[in-house]
Specification:
The complex is a heterodimer of chains A (about 375) and B (about 130).
Chain A: E1 4-5, H1 11-19, H2 29-32, E2 33-49, E3 56-63, E4 66-73, H3 77-82, E5 95-103, E6 109-117, E7 123-126, E8 161-164, H4 192-195, H5 200-211, H6 218-221, E9 238-243, E10 248-253, E11 260-264, E12 286-292, E13 295-301, E14 321-330, E15 333-341, E16 350-360
Parallel strand pairs in A: 4-6, 11-12
Antiparallel strand pairs in A: 1-2, 2-3, 2-5, 3-4, 5-6, 6-7, 8-16, 9-10, 10-11, 12-13, 13-14, 14-15, 15-16
Chain B: H1 2-20, E1 31-38, E2 44-53, E3 58-62, E4 69-77, E5 82-90, E6 96-106, E7 114-121, E8 124-132
Classes of the chains: A mainly beta (about 375), B mainly beta (about 130).
Chain lengths: ~375, ~130
C-alpha cells in the first residue's frame, strides 16, 4: 500500500468542496483550520473517538521514513449519522483516504470533508452530500391551540416535535444588506458598521472577533450556554415545554449542554437581576412572558457577560434588555422577532427577526457539547 | 470531621475561583486584574485593579481595602486597544502622587487578557503588567 501526504488538491476542486460543505458546524471551521491549505491524507486508522461535539478519527500517516499520527476532526455524531456514518463505520487498521483542510497552527490536525476506503475508493463519508431538511409541502395546517385558545408553542397533543432550520442564523439589524455564513462570519468585513448600531468599543471588539474567525467563541470553547437570540439560531433546534400548571415555559436547546431557560407566565413583575437570584441562571437572564393576542411577548433582563448572545460574536453588557415576540402563524412556522436594548454596547435600540420550521415526530437531536477539544 | 469540612470548603472555594475565572465577553476592561508594577525589574509591587463600565465610562479601584484609591480617569482607544489611566494615590513615602499609566491590551479574546504598559508620576517612571482574572 502506498501511503503518505498526497499534497494539494486542485484549487477548483477545493472551492467546490468547501462551497458545498454543510452549514451546521459547531463552530466556524475557519477558526481552527485554514481553507487555503487543502490536503489529502492516506493512512491507517488507529482510533475513532465518537464524541460530542465533534468526532475525531486518528490515523497513522507515513511521510518518508516517518509515521505520524494525525487527528481528523469531523462533524458531530448527529450530523455524521445523517450522512450515513455510524460508530462502526471505521475500525482500527482500516486504510482510509481523507480529504480536508489543515490546522492553522501547523499541528497534525485536519478538518475532514470526506473519508474513503483507500482500497476500492468507497466513500464512507461525504459531507458534501449532506441532505438538508425538506420544507413541508402542501397547504399550511392550522396553529395548534390550547383549550383556552392560546397557541401551542410545542407539539399538538400526543405528538412530538421541535423547532429547527432557522431562516437566519446570526443577528443583523432589520433592513441591513449584509451577507454572512451560517456561523455569522461576514462575507465582507467592511460591512461591520452595517450589522448593528455599535458603540465604538463594541464595534471594534466585534470586528476583532470576526477577523479571528470567531475562534474565541465561548459556546465552542467552553460549551457556554447560548443565551438571548442565539437560542433560536442553533443548528440542532430548540423546543418549548409549556408547563401550564406552574405557569412557566421552558425553552430547551438542541445543543450545548442541554440546559434550559425559564420564562415565567404567572404575571410576576420584571425586576431584572443584575446580580442574579437563586432561580436565575443569568446566561438566559430573567424572563417574564405574556400573551398579546396570538403573540407571546417575552421581556428578559439580568444577563451576565460570559457568553455571546448571537452567532457572529456581537458583544453585549449586563444592561442587555430583550423584548422577544414569538408567534406561530401555522403548524409549521414559528415567527421570532427580537428587539435589543443595550445602552452599554449599542447607541440605540435595534431589531431583527426570522422564522423557524417545525420538525414533526422527532425529539431534539442527541447532540451535547462536552468533551470538547478546542 | 472538621478536616473533612475544611476540605469541602476548600474544594468549594477552588470551584468558585474556577467559575469566577470564566469569560467576561462584554467591555474588555471590566473585571478584576492582578499583576505588578515597579520602577525596575527587581523592585516590584503587587497590584489589584477592579474596573467596571456603566455604558459610558470606565471606573475602577486600585488595591481594594484600606489602602485603596479610585481610578480618576480610564480611557480605551479600541482602534488600537490602548488604555490611558490616571489615578491619585500615594507614593512609597505616603505622599500624594498623581499616577499616569499607558498600556496596551493583548490577548483580548482570552479570559485572561493582559494590560501591559508604563507609568509615571513626576520624574519617577516604571512599568506594569496586569492580567484579568
Amino acid at each position: 500500500m502506498k501511503s503518505g501526504i498526497c499534497g494539494l488538491l486542485p484549487a477548483v476542486g477545493l472551492g467546490v468542496l468547501l462551497a458545498a460543505a454543510p452549514l451546521v458546524a459547531h463552530h466556524a471551521i475557519q477558526a481552527k483550520f485554514d481553507d487555503k491549505k487543502p490536503m489529502t491524507l492516506k493512512g491507517l486508522v488507529t482510533k475513532v473517538d465518537w464524541l460530542n461535539p465533534h468526532v475525531h478519527v486518528f490515523m497513522n500517516v507515513q511521510d518518508g521514513n516517518t509515521v505520524n499520527n494525525w487527528a481528523i476532526e469531523l462533524e458531530s455524531p448527529v450530523d455524521l449519522q445523517k450522512s450515513g456514518w455510524n460508530r462502526d463505520s471505521l475500525k482500527p487498521g482500516d486504510a482510509i483516504t481523507v480529504q480536508g483542510i489543515a490546522a492553522k497552527d501547523g499541528s497534525r490536525q485536519a478538518w475532514g470533508n470526506s473519508v474513503s476506503m483507500t482500497s476500492g475508493g468507497k466513500k464512507i463519508l461525504n459531507l458534501t452530500a449532506a441532505v438538508s431538511r425538506p420544507r413541508p409541502s402542501g397547504a399550511a395546517q392550522p396553529t395548534p391551540r390550547w383549550p383556552d385558545g392560546k397557541a401551542r408553542l410545542g407539539p399538538p397533543p400526543g405528538q412530538t416535535g421541535y423547532w429547527a432550520s432557522p431562516s437566519a442564523t446570526w443577528l443583523v439589524q432589520s433592513g441591513a444588506n449584509v451577507q454572512a455564513d451560517a456561523n455569522g462570519l461576514l462575507k465582507n468585513i467592511a460591512d461591520v458598521d452595517k450589522v448593528a448600531p455599535f458603540q465604538r468599543w463594541a464595534r471594534d471588539l466585534y470586528e476583532l472577533r470576526q477577523r479571528n474567525f470567531l475562534k474565541d467563541d465561548p459556546m465552542f470553547l467552553y460549551c457556554m450556554p447560548p443565551g438571548g437570540p442565539r437560542q433560536f439560531q442553533l443548528p440542532y433546534g430548540m423546543q418549548f415545554v409549556e408547563d401550564h400548571s406552574r405557569q412557566r415555559i421552558f425553552v430547551f436547546i438542541g445543543s450545548g449542554n442541554h440546559n434550559y431557560r425559564i420564562i415565567y407566565t404567572d404575571g410576576r413583575a420584571q425586576q431584572g437581576q443584575i446580580r442574579g437570584d437563586a432561580d436565575n441562571p443569568l446566561y438566559y437572564g430573567r424572563a417574564v412572558g405574556k400573551w398579546e393576542g396570538d403573540t407571546f411577548v417575552v421581556d428578559t433582563k439580568g444577563f451576565n457577560e460570559k457568553f455571546w448572545f448571537s452567532n457572529g460574536g456581537l458583544p453585549h453588557t449586563e444592561q442587555l434588555h430583550l423584548i422577544e415576540r414569538i408567534s406561530r402563524p401555522d403548524l409549521n412556522t414559528l415567527k421570532y422577532e427580537v428587539t435589543i436594548d443595550d445602552p452599554g454596547a449599542y447607541t440605540k435600540t435595534w431589531s431583527a427577526g426570522w422564522n423557524l420550521q417545525w420538525v414533526a415526530g422527532e425529539e431534539l437531536p442527541p447532540y451535547f457539547c462536552q468533551d470538547n477539544r478546542p | 470531621m472538621h478536616l473533612k469540612g475544611a476540605g469541602f470548603l476548600c474544594l468549594l472555594f477552588v470551584l468558585m475561583l474556577a467559575a469566577s475565572s470564566f469569560a467576561q465577553e462584554g467591555h474588555p476592561l471590566v473585571g478584576v486584574w492582578y499583576g505588578d508594577w515597579g520602577s525596575t525589574p527587581a523592585q516590584r509591587n503587587q497590584i489589584t485593579v477592579v474596573m467596571s463600565y456603566d455604558g459610558k465610562n470606565v471606573t475602577g479601584l486600585v488595591n481594594p481595602g484600606p489602602e485603596s484609591f479610585p481610578l480618576k480617569l480610564v480611557t480605551l482607544d479600541s482602534t488600537k486597544w490602548t488604555v490611558h489611566i490616571e489615578a491619585d494615590g500615594k507614593d512609597a513615602k505616603g505622599a500624594p502622587a498623581h499616577f499616569v499609566g499607558d498600556g496596551k491590551l493583548e490577548n483580548i479574546g482570552s479570559y485572561h487578557r493582559t494590560l501591559t504598559g508604563s507609568w509615571n508620576y513626576g520624574a519617577t517612571k516604571g512599568d506594569f503588567k496586569i492580567k484579568r482574572d
